[in-house]
Amino acid sequence: MASLPYTAAACASVRADPAPGLLNYAAVHSCLLRADRRLSLPILALLLLLHFRFLAVAAGAHFSPAVSRLASRLRLSPSMAAVTLLALGNGAPDAFASAAALRGEGGLPRAGLAAILSAGAFVSAFVVGAVSLIAAPFAVPPASFTRDVFLYLVAASALFYIYLSAEIFLWQAVGLVLFYVFFVGLVFYMDLGAAGKAVSSAEPETTANGMGRAAMDLPVSVEHQKQRKVTH
């Protein structure tokens, strides 16, 4: 499209084709910018960055506070909220886009699976790098981080194998779903176990402090009672 010269017929053809989104970007390039790549490429790139900015503002104003409120109400740790609420919010667009690619006219199985792989690569590389540059320095728990990265690599390897074979069987689909259930269960088990150990280790210390204070207060109380008897 970018290499075609501007013609009225090309502009009319692009306008006649209904745009799948709110804005017909092909019409912007072919008609508004008269198919000039020197104008359309930087302008459309800036428009893409503006869309990312809108998405970040909307997520910061609505999505993140809602997830934080739900996590606090449900008493979920950050890891537990990340693999459930955040994963659902971040993965829902990818799921719908892949389903549309697979079930659309003609079906595009490789495109649907490639969209999932590319989205994972984008999040793992660009998003992690950008967040690290903006929010650094911050501490990352080594155990949970290693667990998440390892299981992510296992899931990505399985998906890559399915992509190369260009077919997926029922047992593979069920296995991927069960793998995610196992991942969520492992996160809950590790976080709840760590919380239980923290509570158990805090109880003896609290009991010891209470007994120490009682032992220190006992002689003072006895001496105070003796002084009251002598006075009376």
TrEMBL record:
Q: Listed GO molecular functions?
A: antiporter activity; monoatomic cation transmembrane transporter activity
A Pfam entry, by short name: Na_Ca_ex
Q: What is the lineage of its organism?
A: Eukaryota, Viridiplantae, Streptophyta, Embryophyta, Tracheophyta
Q: Does the keyword Cytoplasm apply?
A: no
Family note: Belongs to the Ca(2+):cation antiporter (CaCA) (TC 2.A.19) family. Cation/calcium exchanger (CCX) subfamily.
Q: Known InterPro entries for this protein?
A: CaCA_antiporter, NaCa_Exmemb, NCX_ion-bd_dom_sf
Q: Which UniProt keywords apply?
A: Antiport, Ion transport, Membrane, Sodium, Sodium transport, Transmembrane, Transmembrane helix, Transport
Q: Does the keyword Cell division apply?
A: no
What is the designated name of this protein? Sodium/calcium exchanger membrane region domain-containing protein
Q: How does it sit in the membrane?
A: Multi-pass membrane protein
Q: Show the stretches that span the lipid bilayer.
A: 40-62, 74-92, 112-136, 148-164, 170-190
Any one GO biological process: sodium ion transport
- Top-level taxonomic group: Eukaryota
Q: Where in the cell is it found?
A: Membrane
Which parts of the sequence belong to the Sodium/calcium exchanger membrane region domain? 45-188
One Gene Ontology term, aspect cellular component: membrane
Endpoints of the signal sequence: none
Origin organism is: Triticum turgidum subsp. durum
Principal localization? membrane
